[in-house]
Amino acid sequence: MVYDNICKAAKKSGLSINFIESETGLSIGSLCKWNKVSPTAKSLKRVAKLLGVTVDSLLEDSKEIQ
To answer: Is the entire prediction scored with pTM above 0.85?
Structure first.
């Protein structure tokens, strides 16, 4: 769910997953694991800020990223 929401927000903002990982100091491939492993609050905040969305929108089980 979290990774899916990140992918939707990334597509909407025109950013690649690799770019997001690089800009937020995450290792390559770490975002795709966030559906199975909970991210740290700090990492989640950095990703949300880069994407211009709220942390809640990344955590919600919703079909649409605002």
So the answer is: yes
